[in-house]
Structure formats: structure tokens, C-alpha cells
Amino acid sequence: MSNASAPSVVTRVKPDTADNKSGTVAAASSESVADFAIFLILATFRNLQWCTTASLTPSTFTDCHTNAAILSHNPRGHTLGFLYISLPAHLHPKPFPNKPTGIIGLGNIGHLLAQKAFSAFGMTIHYHDIIRKPTLEGPLDATYHADLNAMLALSDCVVLATPASPDGRQLIDGERIKHFKIGSRFINIARGSLVSSTALADALDAGILIGCGLDVHEHEPAIDPRLIGRRNVTLTAHNAGGTLDTHIGFESLSMKNITAVLTGQAPLTPVNLHFLPSALKEKASL
Fold first, then answer.
1. Is residue 190 part of a domain?
2. pLDDT 10s digits, 200-241
3. Residue 91 belongs to what domain range?
4. What is the pLDDT of residue 84?
5. Active-site residue, from 111, 145, 191, 217
């Protein structure tokens, strides 16, 4: 038997702590997360949290049946502001074969979500990103905003779908909330660390926000008590990517990355080449 050490292959680890090529399997959850975001959008427009909880007793049932309609809206024609902050180009995983470039990992979630919201519900798509994607704008009739605050000011519903900030910085805090359109809605299917739960609760109290759909939370599994029990806030337990299809996809993509590395090829979805020492980086990129 050979005494040569087997190559190390890691597919789920913090990219800045690995000393070998690391791959991501996040793209396997794109469809599931995009679908879940659509559910949360509908929940905020149609007051589904109120409708669901009200159905449990006759008195609340009657109240909701009588009064919910005046506070509910169809998404069609409303402006969906899509917030996705791309990683710098040198941090991007390589695209899958036969897939369009530029829409990778969490970026793919946003594209799928925009397609669904535009095609199925007739929503008007706006987006903010540090990297503009003009090739995607035409099919979606999407409008790009270099200025995040300008997009927030006109969006009826804002969806956050961006990687967590490496420095832990919050993207949606008390100051940022001030730029939201009065009476708008907010959806977070990204990372709880990006959003101040205190700012959300304050905005709901002030009427800046009239609905929230939150799958991820600032201090999960704990949720800010001020957000619990509100009939205009839909809370879920970080379930957006949680489908059998996603887990099958995770395993399949992991094995494809492993097979690629073991056969001397680059991983399909590398994430950490920029963290490796120069010697390892050169070897890993071969």
C-alpha cells in the first residue's frame, strides 16, 4: 500500500480557517430558499400570520374574517426591492458547468426569487448590489440602484438575501430603517446577524414597517420578545433551505467537489482560495 497521505477535502467549514481547498454546497438550497421567500412575501401582503392564528377560536375567526381584507393587498404591481451585496469578484466561487456566470450561491437565490415574483405575481423588481448585473435586468424588467437608500425609499417590500458581513456589521439598523418607505414590508432569508431586531420592532411600532417575514434572527434560536405574538410578523425557525431536495443536493454537490479534487481538478464551488498561503493557493488553483 502507498504511504502517501490522502488529500484533504473539506466541504463545510469556515473558509478562513481551512488550510486546504474548501468547497461550498450552498447553491443546492437556492430553489428552496427562493420558494420560502415567496411564502414570506405573500404572508406580509395577505396577513397570513393573523389569518392563521385567528382561525383557532370563533371570536378571533370572526374578527379576522371581517377586518383582514381592508389590510390585505395583492402583490401585483407593488415594488419588490431586492437587496443582495455580492462578494468581491476574487471571492466568488467558480460557476457550475453550463450555468450562467454571475449568479452563483446566494446570488442564485436572488435571481430565482426575482423570476418567481415577476412572473407569477407581476411585481416590479428593483435591486441594489455593489456589482450590477445588466444581463439579468432585461428579462425581469429590473431596475438597478447604486444607492441602497434610494431603493429602500420606493420599495413596498424589501428582501434581504446577502452573505453575512465578515466584520459582523449590521446592514439594517436603526439609521437604515429611517430610509424605508412608510408602510413597507421587510423579509429576511439571509442572516440574522445583518439585522437589528430592536430596529425592526421600533419600525413596526412606528408604522414604518407594516409587516415582516423573518426566517433568520439576530440571536437565534432566541427571538426578540418584541417581535413575538405580532399578527403582522411571520416568524419561522431558519427553515427556508430545509427540504429533502436541499439535503440531497448538498450531498451530491459535496461528492462532486470531492471527486474533482481527488482527480486533480479544481473544486466546482471553491470558497477559500483567497485565504490560503500563496504556495497552497498556487497548488490549489491548478
1. yes
2. 999 999 999 999 999 999 999 999 999 999 999 999 999 998
3. 30-45+75-235
4. 59
5. 191
Which is catalytic among the residues 132, 220, 226, 247? 220
User: Is residue 57 within 8 Å of 197, Cβ to Cβ?
Assistant: no
Q: Is 191 a catalytic residue?
A: yes
Indicate if 12 belongs to the active site: no
Assess whether 40 and 182 both reside in one domain.
yes
Instruction: Round the average pLDDT of the chain to a whole number and report it.
Output: 80
Whole-model pTM? Answer: 0.78
34-47 CB burial, b ≥16 within 10 A, e <16: bbbbbbbbbbbbbb
> Same structural domain for residues 220 and 107?
yes
**Of the listed 132, 176, 226, 238, which one is catalytic?**
238
Tell me: do 148 and 271 sit in the same domain.
no
| 238 among known catalytic residues | yes
Q: Could you report how far apart the first and last alpha carbons of the chain are, in Å?
A: 27
* In a shared domain, residues 101 and 220: yes
